[in-house]
Amino acid sequence: MKTLAAKILARPAIPFALVGLLLVGTLSVIYYVQRTLSEIEEALPITLSKQERDIRVLVNDMGRLVQDIEFARSDPSDKKFSVILRQTHKVELLLEKIRETYQFSDVLGISAIHAKLNPAIFDIKTWLTNGLYDFEPTSDYTLKLAELRAKNAHQEAEILLLRVGKTAINVLTEQAQRIKAFRNIMIVKLIVLTVMTIGLVLLGFRLQKIVFALKDSEEQIRYRANYDSLTDLPNRPNFVEHLGEAITRGRRSPGKTALMFIDLDRFKTINDTLGHDYGDELIKQVGLRIRDTIRDTDLVARLGGDEFTVLLTDLSDVIHASIIAKDIIAQLSLPFVLHGHEIYTGASIGITVCPEDGEDANTLLKNADMAMYEAKKQGGNTFRFFTSQMTERAKQFLDLDKDLRRAMAQDELLLDFQPIYDLASSELMGAEVLLRWQHPDRGLIMPDEFITVAEETGLIDEIGLWVLHRACAEARPWLQYELHEKFYMSVNVSIRQFKGGFRKKHLAAVFEETGFPSKHLVLEITESLLMDDDVRFRDALNDFRDLGVRLAVDDFGTGYSALSYLREFPVDTLKIDRSFIQDIVESSNDRRLVEAIVVMAHGLDLVVVAEGVETAEQDVLLRGLNCDMVQGYFYGMPVSAAAITDLLESNSLQAGAKKSAKTA
Ligand code: C2E
Ligand code: MG
Ligand code: MG
Description:
Blueprint: H1 2-10, H2 13-42, H3 45-74, H4 78-102, H5 111-130, H6 140-226, H7 236-252, E1 256-264, H8 267-274, H9 276-293, E2 299-304, E3 307-315, H10 320-333, E4 336-338, E5 341-343, E6 347-354, H11 361-377, E7 383-385, H12 388-409, E8 413-422, E9 428-439, E10 443-445, H13 447-457, H14 460-475, E11 488-492, H15 495-499, H16 504-514, E12 521-525, H17 527-531, H18 535-547, E13 550-556, H19 564-568, E14 573-576, H20 578-582, H21 588-603, E15 607-610, H22 616-624, E16 629-630, H23 641-663
Helix pairs in contact: 2-6, 3-4, 3-6, 4-5, 5-6, 8-9, 9-10, 12-13, 14-16
The structure holds ligand C2E and magnesium ion (2 copies).
One magnesium ion binds near residues 492, 524 and 554.
């Protein structure tokens, strides 16, 4: 059966022919059944007996006519004559009806009666209307001939009736035989059709199985060609293809692409001493660990042996590759448990960046391999970029990160507060919190030197919360003074913090723990946050606003400066970037720009703060341009929270003095 099916399937014409045959077979059965059924219906006993009845009625009525004529002859009167005429007419109508009814289907031969009776009735009617030869219609001669004619016809009709009865029996017997034959033929035909259908269905199943099996093996072949069977990771050709695509994509997008070449340390020794089973198991676990360390969007592949590669795309700075390399090395330095044994290995990583270290996949791979050997030469368990400058940069970057973490732990970070004034009233309206790092060896380090690193390593999440908490705590003493309703302390929040999950609950906890009122806090965010499509950021900002916190856009003018989004976000304040204020006296362009920003901001009901005001000329110009508030060395350097308390103290002393002078 199996081989037969295979043979049949090998010739595609056979299934097609089968389907064709099945179709023709089904159509012929339908036609045959339809025709036979209508024939059988015509000869059903019930139809036959109705036909017999019709003809019997006719024969009886004809008999009546014969009797009527006989009566009329024995007792001639007008009345009797008219009875004959009526009966003649009745028979004539009946004949007509029978002719019409049976002219097309006449199994019993009823139409013959028409041929027998019609001429007789025609003659009788003519004679009784017009008379015969010279005899009157009512004359006995005419009636006698009519009687003879009617009797003759009646006799013949009776003979026919007898014949019809016999015919009916014959027809029924014949039908019974036909039905039997029909049933047998139907059984045979249906068996043939069923066998053919089952055959087709079986063929269909087999075909489906074969198609699936083909697809399966096709997928397997494709998988084997593209994936490593031990780790299920992409293999070299697959990786090279992805790398090529990433290089092409990288040319069009601002994100950077980097390639890591990873080689395990001491793998050969493990393989030689413990055997291939252990080696294979180690390779598998290494693949899993690398995959768990990188981002979902990055790709890890096994080139062969103990060599792995990682493709990093969309990096805002290639230096980030060093963080990932460090993480991978740390992960692979942890012990592996192989068949119950604890094994230690490590990894050497070479990194190339695109396009600096090569513009095609093979060059990048070759150079990453060379960089990996450089890492091996240094004793392994480390990484090297292809260029020594990048390695140096990465080293500084990672050292700074390490140092910053230590600084956090040892409480080396501190805060300055730079006063912000209302231009018109010269009143102290607030202060911006600025982070500093008191380094034990390097002295005071400004935020520009370390915030970026903290943002890139994610440490900013922790630092940012620390700043908020510490600032609110340090500013608590300010609350003892009569602060202006709009007085605020502004804290810088980086977009990385939002990405790291900085939300309402964190702020609420800070207010709860420090007792600082939310209405005196402003968060300084950057334009890039507002431009981000992520709706979670918008929701977070709205939540902050619900808490009573105000929002300021920092460094306005340096980013996208698209105005439409300002309306969509709960922003209160614009801080014009220092770079515009710097040249405001010399450059009429900058002046016009600042003027436009102020007009636009006022149109949107926003408060404008000018940052980095350093001279009296700048101050005069900004007053002329209707700027609301100012911040800069001209008014005050960043100072400690206690120094701001002193400013508030003298402010309130002055206000008190003014008040008492007025009352005096
Ligand atoms: P920023 O938010 O635009 O802060 C204003 C910067 O301008 C501060 O520099 C301030 O000292 C400086 N500045 C103020 N007035 C003048 C002036 O008249 N002339 C000049 N030349 N500079 C003036 P700083 O403290 O070095 O801060 C630099 C940047 O570091 C800040 O820019 C802010 O983006 C970031 N930053 C500071 N503290 C934090 C923080 O706690 N968290 C976050 N995420 N970023 C911070
Ligand atoms: Mg700021
Ligand atoms: Mg700024």
